Amino acid sequence: xxxxxxxxxxxxxxxxxxxxxxxxxxxxxxxxxxxxxxxxxxxxxxxxxxxxxxxxxxxxxxxxxxxxxxxxxxxxxxxxxxxxxxxxxxxxxxxxxxxxxxxxxxxxxxxxxxxxxxxxxxxxxxxxxx
Length: 130
Ligand SMILES: [Cu+2]
Hints:
single chain, alpha+beta, Alpha-Beta Plaits, 2 domains, 4 helices, binds copper (II) ion
């Protein structure tokens, strides 16, 4: 039987199928809504100079539990969307510090800071060449 010649019976069973699918679909939507609700957003200052710093800071935050990390070169602040069940704000700050950047409560790892290019050494004024 060609597929486009559906009998009324078949339509009915299709409608029934839609009803049966509705419940799991609603459950699925509920699941995603609650998953979104578990996302925590935080913003705090992070020292830095330029787009290279931005890349380094954001790369340091590219870990499990972090959904989005954006460092703003103008405000020198990072905004992180993360799952508090997977990672804590303190851990996020430690990641940034270990990449060589100061953030409230955590001073940059000095070895990592020394490795930064001159232009990125945010503690030395006047070295900013870009
Ligand atoms: Cu830089």
